[in-house]
Amino acid sequence: MTDIAFNPSGTEMLVISVLLGLSFIETLFLVYFIVVEETLKVGHVVTLKRISTPFNVSLFAMGLSLLSLIASEVCLLLGAQKDIVVTAEDCFFSTYQVGYIIYSYQRAKGLLSTILPTYVTLFVWSLVQISPLLFYAQVIPDAIILIDGKSTKLDEIGHIISIAGGCVLLFLDLLFLSVFIIFIYSARLPNSTKPDNRFLIVSKYGSIASLLVVLALVMFSLLSDVHEHWFISSSVFFQLLYLDLLVMKIELHRDKMGKLRSANDSTAEARRKTRSTSTRQEGEVESGDK
Questions:
Q1: TM spans, by residue (predicted)?
Q2: Is the CB of residue 186 less than 8 Å from the CB of residue 192?
Q3: Which pTM does this prediction carry?
Q4: For a FRET experiment, which of 70, 148, 179, 265 has its CA 20 to 30 Å from that of 280?
């Protein structure tokens, strides 16, 4: 485990505290939105099976891990043992990355299969499947060092694994970003067919998310020498990323409810016309009988 230069200023401690509060509010809002807006208000009973969709689980894992990550940093501010806290932060950080990759893939896979060749989509699927192993492998060297003591060799191994994980994350992000941009561009062509609005929402907010991840990785590489600097900069971008995905979820839900209301209105109108026609025909029959 590498040594940590940790000497936060008052402003940095304030920023971390604000980030902690925001993370708590966002995670609480997600739970409310899933339980109330997506379940109870549409007439469903809240069950674990109903709310435990891949989207909800991965997004909740991101929120909880971000909250835990920042809470761990607060513990560090309060004087907790650095090695223990940093190992915990590695675990929470890995969980956030895994949750993001799974959520992004689940949202984008419809576009991926439409735009990319089959062999590329299979390769992306394979990367997504092995990503949890890769990201959680980053925790192992620090955990061993925490138990057995300092080891330069394990530090190097952990650094290599972190670089590999960063490369996978960057590759997937740039691929997702490219697909989103291609879809948005093709949807704006004069002779293009009207695209699915859900794909447009995913592409819009997915592009923002991909850019935020790239910026977070860049800031991490530039500020990695000073713990509080890279932590705060990365946390700010991850906070914005999580907020972006929450807004995407809200917009997708609104789109779904809008289509459902439109379908119900069309059905009601068709029934009204049918009843009106039947009533008129019955009136004509009665008039004829007279």
A1: 12-35, 55-78, 116-137, 157-185, 205-223, 229-247
A2: yes
A3: 0.83
A4: 265
What is the pLDDT at residue 143?
83
Q: Which of 31, 26, 63, 39 is nearest to 253 (CA)?
A: 39
Cα of 282 vs its chain's centroid, Å: 58
The structure tokens listed for 163 are 């670089």
Q: Which amino acid is at 35?
A: V
The structure tokens listed for 94 are 């890995």
Q: Which residues contact 99 (CB under 8 A, 6 or more apart)?
A: 58, 59, 61, 62, 65
Tokens of 136: 């959680």
pLDDT at 159: 81
Residues contacting 253, CB < 8 A, separation 6+: 33, 37, 38
C-alpha distances in angstroms, 107 versus 129, 182, 184, 287? 15, 16, 15, 60
Could you give the CA distance from residue 240 to residue 247 in angstroms, rounded to a whole number? 11
Q: How far is CA 228 from the centre of its chain?
A: 24
Q: Quote the CA–CA distance of 91 and 69 in Å, as a whole number.
A: 9
In the predicted model, residues of the chain with pLDDT beneath 70 are: 1-9, 80, 224, 226-227, 264-290
Closest CA to 102 of 70, 134, 125, 133: 125
Distance CA 196, CA 183 (A): 11
Burial (0-12, 13-18, 19+ Cβ within 10 Å), 202: buried
Residue 98, token pair as written in the block: 């895994």
Domains and CATH numbers, the chain: 10-258 (1.20.1070.10)
Q: Mark out the alpha helices in the chain (DSSP H runs).
A: 10-32, 48-51, 54-77, 82-115, 118-137, 139-148, 152-187, 197-223, 227-289
